[in-house]
């Protein structure tokens, strides 16, 4: 049976993934589609509701993205957010103009409690605004449901046609009761049943994998990170004793990680093969400094190693990958800009030598992956394992990748992580980066000219945005002293205090 679904139509907004995540938090399955999806395709998908995302364009510009206007003839409830609200009003004959006063950041709005979106909420709400255009005149049939000091139509609706729009962003945490507003749209307007759970997702993915694979074996590149580990657990449940896990020890792992990964998968109903390919990868990366080239080289080498191993096990027809939703988003989909490629979505050649790709986690956010891992009985130490990029430490070593530089970073990274854990500093991801900067220092009576290590610790709910952790100075001081005293070749340690955006979590 298919879950009830809400479609998120992407018009280029940076928060489209957050909208999808908020819908899922309300136990409703969400799917992101291009903003110009046809009404026939929407009809085929049969969603219970549609949400239009924000976007950077102005709806009155000739080349701005538009939706198929016939979507509104399907009788499906629509919620427009920011640009999405302006687009809906514009298509129905309303007026959208550049604001006299742009609004950015948190603002107070007065909302109409009679509007179903705001059921159960106080009329005065704190929301996040981010716009330079706004609706000046509503189309026929719409009425105002909220206003701020400078935005007279901060919320609007046409109850008869089940069309709703908000100028602010209910999907972000800075809109204090935004999740409640999304919940009201789903349950008060769309009539959601709340049938999306991780239990249901697992059941459907097991059935889908079994249908896709049939009686064949599957080869999985097991990195030991959360994504590949949960992917392995799903496939073990779906295909007991038909999963071959190839752990490619490429020499780009964190300290002692290879041995820990091998121990974690001992005794499972799968075949675990550890391949020592460090020399092979380092030869390919020799002299390479461009991060995109690193990713492509590592991705291609993974495929080559998988191919070599598959031939040893006979005709393995399927390759499994732990691709998750943020991988797909950051590699560029729909109107989204490509930020960086990932080896399991952007680096695969057309002819990979397999009949199909199995990706049971492709539609999940990181926290959903962890939840699924717990449901499958994976240990907390593995489920909560620090996120790790597919290309490993190659993208945490800025510039040339050598064994000496990797070993240096491994030691510094282990010290920083140990200090944060000992001090019980809460962070969703934390690690060290070996920069390509050398600086003058003094140790004892001698002058040094050595490497700079950057430390990074962030707070995030979805890994698509983040804020840096305000690590206590005492903890940073201990980490810095230990790294400069214990790791030969480092004479300076800095702490990264940049959020995402404008930075990414990783440096490369």
Protein structure class: alpha/beta
- Number of distinct beta strands: 18
Average pLDDT, rounded to a whole number, is 90
- Distance from N terminus to C terminus (CA atoms, Å) equals 42 Å
Strand portion, in percent? Answer: 15-25%
Rounded to the nearest angstrom, the radius of gyration is: 25 Å
The total of helices stands at: 14
Uncertain runs are 332-343, 345-349
The biggest sheet amounts to: 9 strands, mixed
Share of helix, binned: 25-40%
Globular, elongated, flat, extended or rod-shaped: what is the shape?
Answer: globular
Strand order of the largest sheet: 2-1-3-4-9-8-7-5-6
Task: Walk me through the structure.
- By secondary structure, this protein is of the alpha/beta class.
- The chain is built from 14 helices and 18 strands.
- The chain has helices at 16-25, 39-45, 83-91, 178-189, 198-213, 226-238, 257-264, 278-285, 291-312, 325-330, 366-375, 380-383, 403-422, 473-486; strands at residues 5-10, 29-34, 49-52, 78-81, 95-111, 124-137, 143-147, 155-158, 163-166, 218-221, 243-249, 271-276, 318-320, 356-358, 429-443, 446-459, 467-468, 490-495.
- The strands form 3 sheets. A 9-stranded mixed sheet has the order 2-1-3-4-9-8-7-5-6, with helices on both faces.
- Strand 10 (218-221), helix 6 and strand 11 (243-249) form a beta-alpha-beta unit.
- Helix 13 (403-422) runs antiparallel to helix 14.
- It is globular and about 75 Å long.
- 46% of the residues are buried.
């Amino acid at each position: 049976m298919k879950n009830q679904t809400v479609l998120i139509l992407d018009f280029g907004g940076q928060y489209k993934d957050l909208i999808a995540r908020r819908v899922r938090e309300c136990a409703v399955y969400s799917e992101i589609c291009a903003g110009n999806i046809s009404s026939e395709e929407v009809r085929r998908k049969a969603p219970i509701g549609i949400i239009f995302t924000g976007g950077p364009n102005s709806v009155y510009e000739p080349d701005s993205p538009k939706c198929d206007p016939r979507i509104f003839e399907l009788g499906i409830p629509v919620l427009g957010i920011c640009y999405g609200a302006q687009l809906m009003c514009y298509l129905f004959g309303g007026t959208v103009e550049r604001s006299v006063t742009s609004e950015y950041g948190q603002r107070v709005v007065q909302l109409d409690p009679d509007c179903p979106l705001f059921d159960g909420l106080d009329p005065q709400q704190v929301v996040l605004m981010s716009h330079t255009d706004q609706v000046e005149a509503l189309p026929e049939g719409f009425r105002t449901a909220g206003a701020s000091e400078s935005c007279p139509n901060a919320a609007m609706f046409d109850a008869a046609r089940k069309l709703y729009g908000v100028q602010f962003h209910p999907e972000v945490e800075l809109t204090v009761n935004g999740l409640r507003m999304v919940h009201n749209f789903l349950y008060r307007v769309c009539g959601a049943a709340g049938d999306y759970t991780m239990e249901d997702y697992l059941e459907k993915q097991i059935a889908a994998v079994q249908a896709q694979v049939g009686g064949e074996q599957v080869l999985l590149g097991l990195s030991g990170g959360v994504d590949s580990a949960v992917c392995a657990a799903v496939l073990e449940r779906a295909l007991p004793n038909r999963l071959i896990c190839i752990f490619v020890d490429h020499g780009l792992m964190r300290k002692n990680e290879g041995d820990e990964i091998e121990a974690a998968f001992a005794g499972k109903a799968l075949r675990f093969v550890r391949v020592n390919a460090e020399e092979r990868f380092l030869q390919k990366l020799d002299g390479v400094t461009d991060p995109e080239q690193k990713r492509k080289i590592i991705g291609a080498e993974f495929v080559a190693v998988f191919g070599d191993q598959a031939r040893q096990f006979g005709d393995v027809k399927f390759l499994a990958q732990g691709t998750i939703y943020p991988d797909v988003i950051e590699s560029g989909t729909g109107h989204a800009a490509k930020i960086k490629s990932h080896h399991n979505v952007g680096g695969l050649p057309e002819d990979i030598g397999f009949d199909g790709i199995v990706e049971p986690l492709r539609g999940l956010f990181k926290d959903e992956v962890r939840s699924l891992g717990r449901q499958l009985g994976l240990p907390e130490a593995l489920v909560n394992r620090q996120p790790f990029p597919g290309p490993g430490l190659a993208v945490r070593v800025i510039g040339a990748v050598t064994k000496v530089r990797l070993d240096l970073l491994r030691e510094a990274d282990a010290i920083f992580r140990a200090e944060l854990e000992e001090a019980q500093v809460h962070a969703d991801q934390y690690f060290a980066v070996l920069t390509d900067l050398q600086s003058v220092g003094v140790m004892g009576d001698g002058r040094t000219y050595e490497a700079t290590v950057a430390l990074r610790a962030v707070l995030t709910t979805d890994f698509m945005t983040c804020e840096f952790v305000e690590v206590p100075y005492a903890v940073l001081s201990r980490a810095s002293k230990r790294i400069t005293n214990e790791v030969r070749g480092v004479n300076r340690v800095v702490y990264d205090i940049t959020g995402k955006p404008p930075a990414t979590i990783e440096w490369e």
